[in-house]
């Protein structure tokens, strides 16, 4: 299966970081392409995007100051298929990406993504007290997967706090 391209550039406001691409994302070449994934709806409902974007427009988020990447590049049916070795390698690569591109905020799309990256066990939603990469503010948001039992409105409310944005690191 094909990996999908990151959408990153220097100085973004927010980089959204997922576990890894879905099979559907691998097939289409676009982030959050699974029809049951609510990422695009959450961004719109939270006020982070001015309209509802389609998965094929994922690179257009760069125009809004947002980027997209994953902790692991290999597509899988679900995150439980990711190996410890893939996470170990992914942590190194993700840290390098963050240090290179220097977004203001690293938004981890799912507590598990942040836990894998930071090594922390207990993680609250929202702003994290400590940054994993100096100078970049960490934010943990619920996964947008359709498997998550939280309602879209609840998830969107958490993402909405990203609009507060300029918190000190």
UniProtKB/TrEMBL annotation:
Alphabetical keyword list: DNA damage, DNA repair, Glycosidase, Hydrolase
Pfam families in UniProt: UDG
Keyword Repeat: no
InterPro entries, sorted: MUG/TDG, Uracil-DNA_glycosylase-like, Uracil-DNA_glycosylase-like_sf
Domain Uracil-DNA glycosylase-like: start-end pairs: 7-151
CDD domains for this protein: UDG-F2_TDG_MUG (cd10028)
Record SUPFAM superfamilies: Uracil-DNA glycosylase-like
Name used for this protein in its record: Mismatch-specific DNA-glycosylase
Organism: Rossellomorea oryzaecorticis
Lineage: Bacteria, Bacillati, Bacillota, Bacilli, Bacillales
